[in-house]
Amino acid sequence: MSRPTRPSRFWETLAVVIVKPLSKLLIKRDWRHGERVPRTGGVIIAANHLSWSDPILLSHFLYNNGRWPVILAKAALFRVPLLGHAVRSLCVIPVERGSNEAAKSLHTAEERLRDGCAIFFYPEGTCTRDPGLWPMVGKTGVARLALQSGAPVIPVAHWGAQELLPYGEKRPRLFPRKTFRVSVGPPVDLSRHIGRPPHAEVLREATADIMAAITAQLAELRGEKAPETPYDPAGR
Q1: Cα 164 from chain centroid?
Q2: Residue 196 and residue 149: Cα distance in Å, rounded?
Q3: Is the C or the N end of the chain the one with fewer CB within 10 Å?
Q4: For the whole model, what pTM was predicted?
Q5: Which CATH superfamily hosts domain 29-223?
């Protein structure tokens, strides 16, 4: 049975009609290097996470650059009436966090990559807790997916979503109008890890390479120097 690589025309049109005008109304745009997003083929989009609003804003960016983003989201959303049907129809992949079922989401993502989808991944797994809002130490799921599938990893950094909707707040700060900045880097070079057994150390090293690429793009956006050592919430 063939698997859909993007929503039906109805659901795609509905999402675009809602998201694009709302995004244009709420933010000003500073989008850089969109041409680095591959227009075809399976690809992993790895981004930093600052706000509950940035999945929507980044989805708009990716859509405008020729890709429908296949997002991984908490499985709990699928159990909410109406919302569950909507996210399922938009090709979102459910993630059962903190259980043995979590590996199924990576298996599903790998299948979607083979079908030519753009998988939108937050390697940190949650909004950053770094006091300066720099990317944290990432989890190894994105590295495992990349090494197993062979799909390129495109690092994407953004800045400004946290001003629109700071983490933990429910009401957006609409005024003054915020600027949402995005910068896309070249594919992460993971060649030194290819062919190595996917042991924990290999996955941690590959994850560190991915996070360093995202952080480099964010430093360019912010015009600041990033910390030499990423914040590790497990060590605090």
Answers
A1: 18
A2: 14
A3: N
A4: 0.94
A5: Glycerol-3-phosphate (1)-acyltransferase (3.40.1130.10)
Strands 178-184 and 153-159, by their bridges, are: antiparallel
- Helix, strand, or coil (residue 3): coil
Q: Evaluate whether 113 touches 216 at the Cβ level (below 8 Å).
A: no
How far apart, in whole angstroms, are the C-alpha atoms of residue 158 and residue 41? 23
Ranges of each domain in the chain: 29-223
236 residues of the chain, pLDDT tens digit each: 456 678 999 999 999 999 999 998 899 999 999 999 999 999 999 999 999 999 999 999 999 999 999 999 888 889 999 889 999 999 999 988 765 667 889 999 999 999 999 999 999 999 999 999 999 999 999 999 999 999 999 999 999 999 999 999 999 999 999 999 999 999 999 999 999 988 999 999 999 999 999 999 999 999 999 999 999 998 76
